[in-house]
Write a structure and sequence with these properties.
The protein is mainly beta. The protein is 6% helix and 46% strand. The protein has three domains: 5-92, Distorted Sandwich (Protein Yojf, Chain: A), CATH 2.70.180; 99-163, no CATH class; 172-252, no CATH class. Strands 4-3-2-1-7-6-5 form a seven-stranded antiparallel sheet, with no helix packed on it. Bound molecules: zinc ion (4 copies).
């Protein structure tokens, strides 16, 4: 279950905001405390809070004498004291994002927000930021949507790495496919994960040649011998420091004036 909760305190309150100087407000207001300790105090007007503290270091509440809530961050303090409490509640909360599918475990909505999250059960799947989520017709046998990720080819794999591994798919396609470009090295490039996916020389650490696998599909060979990738915004060499078609690009530029 989701254990993140948004807490709400509503009532006639005094709010004291201290950061160097001190501001004091009194009104019938609603305070929202987010799971990341962001505190927002709202009155009747507009979207902007009367007072707030983003991601406080600590939020403590005390119900022994009325209701008080104290949030602290560095030198800033936000104190909220309820004189007359209209309500106090907490509600389950999740990240929000565009819906990309349905959770096979609980039928909740899967949304995309820095990864894929189930709004109901809280399951989450890390995905590459350039991944696109496929429609229901492409769902994995496990029920999860598949994502499309371009790493030399367009791979459609399950959101769950333990179900279908992007790394394995890229390795199957490109492991030892290319030779190390170092002139005094006879190694092959292996597909490895070091942070991201890289094509790195098999003779590491004797040869430390390695290239991050670009987001794109292989569309040819560079004059240096390495493959080129169509990234959607142009063609580049596997070696990001190599300009594969610098000369050709000039020649192919259309004549001006038409
Ligand atoms: Zn779920
Ligand atoms: Zn699956
Ligand atoms: Zn090498
Ligand atoms: Zn090149």
């Amino acid at each position: 279950m989701i254990d993140d909760a948004i807490r709400i305190l509503a009532g006639d309150c005094t709010v004291i905001a201290e950061s160097g100087d001190q501001q004091e407000y009194r009104g019938r207001m609603t305070t929202v405390v987010k799971p990341d300790n962001t505190v927002l105090v709202h009155d009747t007007d507009g979207y902007q809070p009367v007072a707030w503290l983003t991601r406080a270091d600590s939020v403590s509440s005390d119900r022994s004498d009325g209701f008080t809530l104290v949030a602290k961050k560095d030198t800033q303090t936000l104190r909220i004291a309820a004189h007359d409490q209209d309500g106090f509640a907490h509600y389950p909360a999740s990240v929000a994002g565009p819906v990309v599918g349905t959770c096979p475990d609980c039928s909740g909505a899967l949304v995309r927000s820095n990864g894929i999250h189930c709004v109901d059960c809280g399951d989450r799947y890390g995905i590459p930021s350039d991944a696109t989520i496929r429609g229901e017709a492409s769902n994995c046998d496990c029920g999860l949507p598949r994502m499309r990720v371009e790493r030399g080819l367009a791979f459609d794999v399950c959101l769950d790495r333990d179900c279908e591994s992007l790394d394995d798919a890229v390795s199957d396609a490109f492991d030892r496919e290319w030779s190390c470009p170092e002139s005094d090295c006879d190694g092959d490039l292996r597909i490895l994960r070091r942070g991201g996916l890289i094509a790195g020389c098999e003779h590491y650490p004797d040869c430390d040649t390695g290239f991050a696998m670009p987001a794109g599909v292989v569309d040819g060979q560079c004059r240096c011998g390495l493959p080129t990738f169509d990234t959607g915004s142009g063609t580049r060499c596997l070696d990001a420091t190599c300009d594969p078609i610098g000369e050709r690009r000039l020649e192919e530029r259309p004549a001006s004036g038409d």
